[in-house]
Each structure stands twice: as structure tokens, then as C-alpha cells.
């Protein structure tokens, strides 16, 4: 009888040992899985922070482009004013040339 009691007790110890190993294995898997998840989350957070940096840089570039466009627009406005003034001057010179031609004709008639 004593042997029979040892067998179930030995069997119970084996089951408990296997259960302990099984729980340790599951726990190790869960810890590893959590560690992997934390790493993935950290990478995502870092990627998100870099995305913010990229968005910030894009916004700064956009502001610089907007300033360049405004400067170009101002330059075009100034060039349009200068073009108008040059046209007025051309017209005035053309009138003076015509008047000088008329004066030359009148002088040539007077001198004949």
C-alpha cells in the first residue's frame, strides 16, 4: 500500500512540475509579447514625433514659399508701374520727334 501512495504522490508532483513549466512558458511568452508590443509602440511614437518634425519643416517651407511669392508679386507690380512710365516716355519722345520733323520742314520752307 505504501507503494500505491507513492505513485499517486509522484504522479501529482509530475503534474505540478509540468503545470509549473507550462505556466512559466506561458508567462515567458506573454512577457516576450508585451516587450515586443512595447518596442512596436515606442517605434510608432518615435515615427509620430518625426512626422511632427516633417510637418513642421513643411510648414516652414510653405511660409518661405509664400514670402517668396509675395515678394515676386510686389516686384511684378513695380515692374508694371515702370513699364507704364516707360510707355509714357516713349510716347513723349515720339511726339517730340514728330514735332521736330515738323519744325525741320517749316524751317526748310522758310529758308527757301
TrEMBL record:
Subcellular location, principal: membrane
Name of the molecule in the record: BLOC-1-related complex subunit 7
Record keywords, A-Z: Lysosome, Membrane
Subcellular location: Lysosome membrane
Pfam families membership: BORCS7
InterPro entries the record matches: BORCS7
Family in the record: Belongs to the BORCS7 family.
Lineage: Eukaryota, Metazoa, Chordata, Craniata, Vertebrata
Matching PANTHER family: BLOC-1-RELATED COMPLEX SUBUNIT 7 (PTHR31397:SF1), BLOC-1-RELATED COMPLEX SUBUNIT 7 BORSC7 (PTHR31397)
Gene Ontology BP annotations: axon development; lysosome localization; motor behavior; neuromuscular process; response to cycloheximide; vesicle-mediated transport; walking behavior
GO cellular component: BORC complex; lysosomal membrane
Amino acid at each position: 500500500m505504501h507503494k500505491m501512495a507513492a505513485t499517486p504522490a509522484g504522479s501529482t508532483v509530475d503534474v505540478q512540475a509540468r503545470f509549473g513549466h507550462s505556466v512559466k512558458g506561458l508567462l515567458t511568452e506573454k512577457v516576450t509579447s508585451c516587450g515586443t508590443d512595447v518596442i512596436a509602440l515606442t517605434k510608432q511614437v518615435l515615427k509620430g514625433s518625426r512626422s511632427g518634425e516633417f510637418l513642421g519643416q513643411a510648414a516652414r517651407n510653405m511660409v518661405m514659399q509664400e514670402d517668396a511669392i509675395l515678394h515676386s508679386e510686389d516686384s511684378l507690380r513695380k515692374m508694371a508701374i515702370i513699364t507704364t512710365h516707360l510707355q509714357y516716355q516713349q510716347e513723349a519722345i515720339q511726339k517730340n520727334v514728330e514735332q521736330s520733323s515738323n519744325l525741320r520742314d517749316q524751317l526748310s520752307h522758310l529758308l527757301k
